[in-house]
Amino acid sequence: MKKILTLFAVAGLLAFSSCSDDNNGDGDTISEVFEVSGVNFTSANSFSTLVDLNPSIYDSDVILVYRLSAVDNGRDIWKLLPDTYFFADGTRNFSYEFDFSQDDINIFMDGNDLGTVAAGFRTNQVFRIVIVPGAFSTTGKSVKPDYSDYNAVIAKYNIDDTNVKKLN
């Protein structure tokens, strides 16, 4: 009888040790938020900044980038990129955009005469980068959040953004 109980105990330990606390669905990647602050867009850096990802992300992961556009009553207002600004006559002035690979994210400004864009839009910018594991986009289990709403994304993917990882 002792041998059978020991066998069950060992089998139970093996079964439980192979389980993981993975609330995010893909078994090896979790949603994360990183912050890059003090970004200056100038002609010297071609109005761009490169953010290295270490470790690299999986090729199925999705990157969302938000720019701190304002603070309202102590509450941060985040805008999803791309984000385009227009002149009063409706023509495009400039936009914030990004592209990414498994190893880095390039955040950049695009427009005709970026040197004339007000300094408040070019200097000391703050960005939040949200990594969403690819498994979330393929599960089909639930409705995707409104990606333009930073807070909805944070809530949907159970991300604790009180301890955002600073990259600079």
Describe the structure in your own words.
This protein is of the alpha+beta class and 168 residues long. It has one domain (22-166). The chain contains 4 helices and 9 strands, in the order αβββββββαβααβ. The strands form 2 sheets. The chain has a 5-stranded mixed beta sheet with strand order 4-3-8-1-9. A 4-stranded antiparallel beta sheet has the order 2-7-6-5, with no helix packed on it. A hairpin with a 2-residue loop joins strand 3 (62-72) and strand 4 (75-80). The longest helix has 16 residues, at 2-17. The chain is globular, with a radius of gyration of 21 Å. 16% of the residues are buried. Mean pLDDT is 81; it is low at 1-29.
Strand order, main sheet: write it out.
4-3-8-1-9
How confident overall, as mean pLDDT?
81
Number of strands: 9
| Poorly predicted residue ranges | 1-29
Number of domains: 1
The helix/strand order is: HEEEEEEEHEHHE
Q: Report how far the terminal alpha carbons are from each other.
A: 60 Å
Class computed from helices, strands and strand pairing: alpha+beta
The Rg value, from CA coordinates, equals: 21 Å
Helicity range of the residues?
A: 10-25%
Assess the beta-strand content as a share of residues: 35-45%
